[in-house]
Amino acid sequence: MSVCINPQCSNPENQDTSLFCQSCGSELLLDGRYRVLKELGGGGFGKTYEVLDSNPQKSQTNQPIYKVLKVLLHNHPKYVELFEREVNVLSRLKHPGIPKVEPDAHFTFFVKNSDKPLYCLVMEKIEGLNLSQYIAQRGKCISQKMAIQWLMQLLRILEEIHHHNFFHRDIKPSNIMLRSTGQLVLIDFGTAREVTETYLSKQSSGGVTGVFSAGYSPIEQLNGQAVPQSDFFALGRTLVYLLTGKHPSELYDSHVDQLNWREAVPNLSAEFGDVVDQIMARLPNQRPSSAQVVLNELENVYHNLYGSDSFLDTFTVSLENENTDDMPTRVAPPNNPLPLPPKPESFAFAEPSQAIDTNFVEKCQTELAELIGPMASLICQKQLRKPQYFSNGSCQGTG
């Protein structure tokens, strides 16, 4: 099957040998080489598809080459800026834990009878599951040893990103893929930012938009003051999820402003627990200054826990006990702090229903309390008395 990417196409499915869509007339062989096979996902910004790369110069064997196509659905300047920023970031980063993007993988496509371009980006297809899917299918949390190994992998990826003066701003389990080899891959660089003088100037004047994923993003990021250490916070919260199987908001106690996660992890090492707590400290200046600082601490923790003669085996990835030799290379840590990116699409906190779910209200209150403290209860109750804030039982907000 060949899929048409025209957003207005009434019947996008075509035969795999067709050159033009039988419904709308748009071309099906994009950029002269990519044939869209199926839709993988979508949202307010755009859609992603699986594509077959038919460029004979790229194929060294007779094996088909499958990739991922990301298509921007809106031509708003802000969305285009975000899209092109992702292209810039991925084209400059080279690491096994980051999706590969070729120099000629960014192009525009015009559907039939339209003068508005669709912005397209083709990147490496990561075969595997994201960590939310992995934990769900596994049916249990990961071990402490695996958590340390995974944390080290992710720190190496962040080291590469921060070394190039970028930071990710949206680290969470669903944005980390696990290959069948055990290699972790950080995906979705749509909100990544580069630290430049322009960025720092905007940040100091409050001109940077906050990006926020409830339970994983630190408070400074919501305020448009993200730094490289903001990625560490999100990484720590991700580790908490992997070790407990619970969303961080489920473990947060608003009465004492504390994340009570340690008791949910059997036989947790106090040493390792301290490292995780340190990287997700509330204030950026309380977190480590670089990924290398955390890696050095983990080296000591791993040696003390497992008595390894060689620290190199902690870079060996495992799917619990199966080891591989796929190991990222070490790069130098960044010399200066990093920046933040633009605003994501609107999101709904709950599915529409006829009445406001009390469990949903409690969840909103808990997540808000983590940001502003006990006042969250008063604010939620006040908003509940304003029906215009709710539509069919869902609470709408923007990131």
Mean pLDDT: 78
Estimate percent helicity.
25-40%
Uncertain stretches: 195-208, 316-355, 386-399
CATH superfamily of the largest domain: Transferase(Phosphotransferase) domain 1
Secondary-structure element series: EEEEEEHEEEHHEEEEHHHHEEHHEHHEE
Quick one: CATH class of the largest domain? Mainly Alpha
Going by helix content, strand content and strand pairing, the class is alpha+beta
Gyration radius, in Å = 22 Å
Would you report the number of β strands? Answer: 18
**Straight-line N-to-C gap:** 37 Å
**Which band does the percent of strand residues land in?**
15-25%
Query: What topology, given as strand order, has the largest sheet?
Result: 3-4-5-6-8-7
Count helical runs: 11
Q: What general outline do the C-alpha atoms trace?
A: elongated
The name of the CATH architecture of the largest domain is Orthogonal Bundle
What fold name goes in the CATH topology slot of the largest domain?
Transferase(Phosphotransferase), domain 1
Question: Can you tell me the number of structural domains?
Answer: 3
What's the main sheet like?
A: 6 strands, antiparallel
